[in-house]
Structure formats: C-alpha cells, structure tokens
Amino acid sequence: MIPVDHKVKHKSTIPANFGTEIELFVREYKAAGSGGTPKPVLMLHGRSVPALPGFDLVRPAQGGSPHPDTSYSWAQTLAGKGYDVYIMDLQGSGLSPRPEMHDPCNANPAQRGLLKTNPGTEDCDPEANYAAQLGNSKSEWGELGTVVKFIRGRSANEKVAFIGWSAAAFVMGPYALQKPGDVASMFLLAPMFPPNGRWSTNTSAPFAPPPGTPLPTKPESKPPAVFGFPMNLTSKAGLQAGITDKELADDVWQAIMNCDSIGQKWGGSTPGAPEGVMRWRNSFWWGWNTNTLPHDSTLGSTVPVCIVYGDQDKTANTPQEMGPVLHFSVPKLYEGIPGADKLMLRVEGWDHNPVWERKANQTLQHMSWKWLKDKKVYGVESGSWVMDSDGVLAEVE
Predict the structure, then answer these.
(1) Given strand 393-395, what is the order of strands in its sheet?
(2) Which domain of life is it from (predicted)?
(3) Contact indicator for 293, 338 with CB cutoff of 8 Å
(4) Residue 282 · residue 230 · CB < 8 Å
(5) Could you tell me the residue ranges of all domains in the chain?
C-alpha cells in the first residue's frame, strides 16, 4: 500500500510555542477495494514510541522475498479490510514538531548520561533550560481534536473509531468523554489508567486543569518546574530489552531513528559514532480517573469500548504503593466504565508490547478488525474474559 502523508495545521496550545501555527504529522492509508464511504479509524501512539514504529512497522524483505514485510503494519492490515486508517504523532513525538526539545540540556537530568559522549552535555547551563513539561492534557486533547476534525472533513463527517496504545488512553479517553459526537468506538491496547490520578476536583468542570497547574499563554512565560524538563530519553539497549525477537528489535529501532533526524545523532559510547536515542515528550496529564470516567455515562453506551491487555504487562498495571499518579490498573478502567457496551480481554503471555511479537501481533490485528466490524471479538461482545495461549476464552466471574 502507498501511504499518503499529511501536514495538518494546528495552532499550538503547549506552553513552549503557544499560539504558533504548527503542522501535525498524519499518515493515511486509504481503504482497499471498498465501495461507498469507508469508515475512518485513527490510531494514536503512547508515551514514548512514535506512531510509525508502533502502527506501521515495515521490515526489509524477508526469506528471499523481493517485497518488504508489511505483516507487522497494523494500519495497513486494517486498511486492507476496508477502513480509511490514519495514524498521527502528537507534538514532541515522531514526525510532528518537537519544540524546546532540540537542546540536549532539556533532557531529563537523570538521563543526560546517555548524551555525555554524543553530542556532549558538559556545558549545560541550568538557567537556559526549559524547566517544565512539554505538553499537558489540554494541549494534547486539542491536537487530537484538530486531527479528528481533519479526518471527519475527508470522511463525509463520519464519526472516527479510535485505536490507542498505552498512554494514548490519557488523550483518547478524556477526549471521548468530552466529545462523544466525534467518536464511533474505542479499542484500547494496554491502556494506562490511574484510578486516583489528577483531576480538577470540581464536579462541574471535571476536565479543567487541577489547581496550580501552570498553563502560560506565551512561550516566553516559561512555567515553574512541574517535572522540570520537556524531554525523556531511551537508549537503544533500553528499548530493545522489551523485544524478544532481536532481528525485529533492530528494525524497530531503525524505524524510530527514521522518525528523528536529531535523536539519531545522539547517544552511544564512542565519540563521533552515535547509535541514537529515542526522544519522547514529558507531559502533565489529568482528567482520567475513577471520578471522571462516569462523565455523562458516555463510555460503554454512546462510545463502545474494547480493552485488550496482557497478563504479563507490568507497565499498565502497577502497585498501589506507587502512589496516585503512578498506580495504574487496567481492570479498574473496565470496572469504572458505566455502560454495558464494554469488553475486556486479558491475554495470557502478553506483555506491554504485543505489536512486536509475531503471533501476538497477528492476533491483535484480528481482534481490532472484528471489533471495528462487529463490535465483537471471537464471538463475545461484552464482559471480562481471559484468553489462554491456545486462543481459548473463559469468562471472568
């Protein structure tokens, strides 16, 4: 399939470049062999991995084939099933703009050691740093909304089906609660959900910024430190540690580097021979917890929801001792959805990255297609289920 890449204009609301017109990266795969107006699907990345390595991984030709291996491309698979599929990068990720992130001194101080050799951080001036998170819930809901409007304008105003991985839930979930008229359904893979996470505590304005959240209106009005930096870093070894297929791990890393002409020149232990680092935005999220989840009884009714996660996922499920911001629970998300049109599948053997496991990847693509097509997965349309390694489902009491 041939992708169509768009640059969607958006007036930024992140503090670093507030009011600036920027261009968000959006890739489109047009539906294959369908009549009428194909249903639109939007795929959103999580906290760290950009959209293309997650949803459109294309490997070099394998096994003597003259053609690239597109079997890992979730986006192309769904387009082949008759959907217009869009994938996007938020600011600070992938091929969208990365304001206040080009300087290595703006990296997480705990991770700057990754840059000691390439490009070097010995001369960092703390006073010159952008000492705050890059984005926030309000800015990311706005970017998502701009892309949704763009898609609906190309799709006879059809509602958009959401597919989100990991921390995409922080963006897509509250957006659906506030704008249910835009959203046909949600399919969430390994969603991040803090049951006691940040919110305004104002029941009449549950999605307003929590008290004290810095939201300046001019880029020169740099906010006081909240997390103290706009950019996190991950080394090649750190990313690849979570991928069991080492040949595939190299392809994933190369796809990430292809999305970042600056990050690919950083990192490594040999001067002048960088191996690259993955740069990802540091965002301040709110409005996604057990207090906001019942808002207007939207989820599970107006917006049907399917949740899929692995029983080995220690990223989307963390201990309560981690505290209100870092304690995540997928089951609590399912339990808090008020409507009956909700389905959750816990898959034995999966971790947080099934998109990069051959068997899991194929299963995941099939699950999402059946959900989009029938609002069912393997014949079940609601309830909480566990799927074993043989694909056998059992309902959770």
Answers:
(1) 4-11, 21-29, 84-88, 40-44, 160-165, 183-189, 305-310, 342-347, 383-387, 393-395
(2) Bacteria
(3) yes
(4) yes
(5) 4-99+131-220+284-395
Per the CB < 8 A criterion, the answer to whether 93 and 38 are in contact is: no
What is the rounded distance in angstroms from the CA atom of residue 115 to the CA atom of residue 327?
Answer: 30
pLDDT tens, the chain, 397 aa long: 899 999 999 999 998 898 999 999 999 999 987 567 899 999 999 999 999 999 999 998 887 788 899 999 999 999 999 999 999 999 999 999 999 898 898 999 899 999 999 998 777 776 667 878 899 999 999 999 999 999 999 999 999 999 999 999 999 999 999 999 999 999 999 999 999 999 998 889 999 998 877 655 455 555 554 557 899 999 999 999 989 888 899 999 999 999 999 999 999 999 999 999 999 999 999 999 999 999 999 999 999 999 999 999 999 999 999 999 999 999 999 999 999 999 999 999 999 999 999 999 999 999 999 999 999 999 999 999 999 989 999 999 7
| Residue that has been written with the tokens 């004290």 in this structure | 212
CA gap 19, 374 in Å, rounded: 42
Nearest alpha-carbon partner for 178 in 212, 226, 141: 141
Read off the pTM. Answer: 0.95
Secondary structure percentages of the chain, helix, strand, coil, to 5 = 30, 20, 50
